[in-house]
Recover the amino acids of this structure.
């Protein structure tokens, strides 16, 4: 299936997504990767306010290149999501429901996605120039000292994504290769 | 004796940093095109055509191909009859600084592995220098992305493990890497030498053209065989299944100790960047 979705995503919209579905996403996403995740968790530990609300938000594991004067953003593809695995269950527990990145997740994250009815979407890895064209506006939210790892709010239009792990815990990173191999070996 | 001003070195390094990040080498582009023709699985073919579109977008919009513009690895072959006016190593670092600033490339280096403060100019680069006959300076810049660097591995195998042990280690490494290094990948395989040498060999193997093979027929056959086996794993482009898991595999070897069989696998993503110049 292919869906055009707008943020914030309704719970029902998230629940009907199945691993392998294509999504064109329009709306607001927040970039956060390794160092920003560490600080988000520190905020939770200290009971400090978060720089953006986790509920109804989309986190994009990305650290774009700096924009040239005539550009909105530089190259802006996904980074490896697995490095955020140790932080993710805590954020899901706090209301996060949509993550965008690339690469597979730990069994704990998969289980957590299932438990909270969340979804993990994959953006094409190593296609940052193409993805930059989907970004219409960028605003620095906080932690500028982290450079490319600062949290930025991106307005995206028709960002091309694939459902990698759905709310039932189905995982395209295991099912995709298995489907290809069984098709190949039948021949 | 020929002399060369340090400024010329900085200028060249800066230009190569920008070029490498915006445009893939011809052999890698051809390998991607061939992969798209060879891929039988429709969704995998779609992923590959997206990568071609991305290369076009990078060229047209003067953007880096990937937002991870890498840890800068600089390989210099310095003619022993060339006299450099100024500080050779600092000239290279200055070139990286200028290139990453001028080219709007991402600064991805932290000054300390545990305290992690960004240096804000992508220095220091890793500099490898080889002293060679002549009076020229050859420089190659390889901006190394860390999604794939993180999936690279090194093993000190036993001589008894032999060819089969090397084969198993390569396949295990690629299988464990899965979708993380942005397949289709390029594999640099180092075999032999010492613990430190074998890692450098694997990285240098990533500098070799994908449309050539090892001059030693034994290793040329091994390159072809390992590539064929990797492309039977089913990981596929982006790790969503398919035939093309790797675009190429190159091997470099060194003599080693009677007691050892060091092996290193350095993985590159499909954005296998390198740019070279001569002064």
């Amino acid at each position: 299936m292919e869906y055009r979705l707008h943020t914030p995503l309704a719970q029902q919209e998230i629940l009907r997504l199945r691993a392998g579905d294509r999504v064109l996403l329009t709306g607001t996403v927040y970039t956060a990767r390794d160092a920003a995740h560490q600080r988000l968790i520190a905020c939770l530990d200290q009971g400090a306010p978060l720089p953006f609300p986790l509920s109804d938000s989309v986190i994009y594991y990305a650290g774009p290149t700096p924009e040239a004067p005539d550009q909105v953003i530089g190259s802006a593809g996904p980074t490896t999501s697995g490095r955020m695995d140790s932080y993710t269950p805590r954020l899901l527990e706090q209301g996060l429901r949509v993550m965008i990145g690339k690469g597979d997740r730990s069994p704990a994250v998969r289980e957590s996605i299932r438990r909270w009815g969340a979804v993990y979407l994959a953006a094409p890895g190593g296609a940052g120039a193409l993805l930059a064209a989907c970004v219409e506006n960028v605003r620095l939210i906080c932690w500028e000292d982290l450079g490319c790892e600062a949290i930025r709010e991106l307005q995206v239009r028709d960002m091309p994504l694939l459902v990698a792990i759905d709310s039932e815990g189905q995982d395209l990173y295991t099912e995709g290769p298995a489907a290809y191999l069984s098709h190949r070996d039948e021949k | 004796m020929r002399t060369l001003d340090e400024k010329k070195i900085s200028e060249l390094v800066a230009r190569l940093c920008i070029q490498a990040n915006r445009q893939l080498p011809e052999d890698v582009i051809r390998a991607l095109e061939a992969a798209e023709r060879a891929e039988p699985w429709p969704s995998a073919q779609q992923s590959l055509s997206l990568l071609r579109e991305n290369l076009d977008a990078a060229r047209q919009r003067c953007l880096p191909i990937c937002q991870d513009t890498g840890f800068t690895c600089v390989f210099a072959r310095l003619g022993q009859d060339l006299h450099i006016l100024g500080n050779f190593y600092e000239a290279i670092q200055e070139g990286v600084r200028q290139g990453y600033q001028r080219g709007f490339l991402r600064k991805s280096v932290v000054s300390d592995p545990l305290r992690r403060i960004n240096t804000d100019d992508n220095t220091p680069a890793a500099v490898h220098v080889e002293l060679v006959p002549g009076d020229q300076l050859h420089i190659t810049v390889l901006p190394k992305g860390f999604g794939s660097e993180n999936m690279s591995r090194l093993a000190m195998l036993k001589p008894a493990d032999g060819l089969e042990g090397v084969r198993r280690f390569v396949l295990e490494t690629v299988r464990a890497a899965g979708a993380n290094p942005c397949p289709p990948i390029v594999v640099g395989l180092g075999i032999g030498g010492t613990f430190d040498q074998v890692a450098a060999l694997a990285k240098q193997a990533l500098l070799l053209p994908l449309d050539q093979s090892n001059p030693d027929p034994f290793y040329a056959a091994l390159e072809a065989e390992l590539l064929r086996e990797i492309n039977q794993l089913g990981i596929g482009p982006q790790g969503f299944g398919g035939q093309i898991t790797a675009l190429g595999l190159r091997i470099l070897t060194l003599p080693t100790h009677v007691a050892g069989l060091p092996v290193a696998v350095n993985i590159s993503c499909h954005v296998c960047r390198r740019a070279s110049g001569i002064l």
